[in-house]
Amino acid sequence: xxxxxxxxxxxxxxxxxxxxxxxxxxxxxxxxxxxxxxxxxxxxxxxxxxxxxxxxxxxxxxxxxxxxxxxxxxxxxxxxxxxxxxxxxxxxxxxxxxxxxxxxxxxxxxxxxxxxxxxxxxxxxxxxxxxxxxxx
Length: 136
What we know:
This protein is an all-alpha fold. Helices cover about 75% and strands about 0% of the residues. The mean pLDDT is about 90.
């Protein structure tokens, strides 16, 4: 499925007004999560133009609460994608990545602390990030 950065930008704007309605449609949220997080944030190797990842990072930054359940279940993978953009050579990509990372941390920590995840999953996320932060 080809991903269009203009479509992602349009969704970002649309969701500003319709997030509550979309929250009542979990299957649609899951589809959108797969497109944004597993598709647009994980572009093919050799990408030279970064419009798609930048648009996806804006989606994460502005609408992370919509995807917090999904982000928490795949926290390690999503963190890896966003971290790679934080370390990217392209300044504009890095500029978009850090606010997305902050939104990601906020939502995943909320999911871990509010008890909506199993204790095993919460412990796994906590352990992963402790290892990640201590390893530098």
